[in-house]
Write a structure and sequence with these properties.
Helix content: 25-40%
Low-confidence stretches: 156-198
Mean pLDDT: 74
Order of helices and strands: EEEEEHHHHHHHHH
Structural class: mainly alpha
Strand content: 5-15%
Number of strands: 5
Strand order of the largest sheet: 1-2-5
Distance between the termini: 39 Å
Shape: globular
Largest sheet: 3 strands, antiparallel
Radius of gyration: 18 Å
Number of helices: 9
């Protein structure tokens, strides 16, 4: 998971972004899957405040475990994420990965473009449009306040990729097809489920 691969050097507080360059899974630190997966993600004010409240540490890992190493995704889910939901009464229990779908929903309803969301999430525009595109046309409701510090202009200024890539911005514009990601139907609006069922019958 990319969250547990983050290091202090990946956070640019001045620009208000975190650079995603690596992932940690099955006890191994590795590069992200594709060029598109390397990205700058804007941080909300609440996230920047939380990072500022972290205890000072010489450990390069942004979120280390109690032994100073990297957090295991499965262990964190069993021993921390699910128990925390139980304590506050969340039912049904949500998977940690569901936060990704929540972010996409809030961002698109706040008026963030499908292109920008695809860059923030490291997914293709086709995948974002397939699963969440209808949200871009929905009411913005109150989601704008939830993304109070989502300053897209700052992210563009900070750069989406490494300096080496920026030197040739017209290269590699076409990304390879991505495997379609699965989405928990509990997070899919009812109208989309009904439309999908109707298409299958026709």
């Amino acid at each position: 998971m990319e969250l547990f691969a983050l290091e202090h050097r990946d956070v640019d507080r001045r620009a208000g972004v975190v650079y995603v360059r690596r992932a940690y899974a099955n006890g191994r630190l590795k590069h992200t899957k594709t060029r598109l997966s390397n990205r700058a993600v804007p941080l909300q004010a609440i996230a920047l405040d939380a990072l500022d409240r972290l205890a000072p540490s010489e450990n390069p890992i942004l979120f280390p475990n109690s032994r100073g190493g990297r957090i295991d995704f499965r262990s964190f889910g069993r021993h921390h994420w699910k128990p925390a939901q139980t304590i506050v009464g969340i039912q049904p229990l949500r998977h940690l990965y569901d936060l990704r779908h929540t972010y996409a929903t809030f961002a698109l309803r706040a008026g963030v473009s499908v292109f920008a969301v695809s860059r923030f999430m490291g997914s293709s525009i086709a995948m974002i449009d397939y699963h969440y595109g209808h949200l871009a046309r929905d009411s913005r409701e109150h989601a704008v306040s939830l993304l109070d510090a989502l300053a897209i202009e700052r992210v563009v200024d900070a750069g989406w990729t490494s300096p080496a890539t920026l030197a040739n911005p017209l290269a590699n514009r076409v990304s390879k097809p991505h495997r379609r990601e699965s989405v928990d139907v509990r997070w899919t609006p009812r109208v989309k489920i009904v439309a999908s069922a109707a298409n299958k019958r026709s």
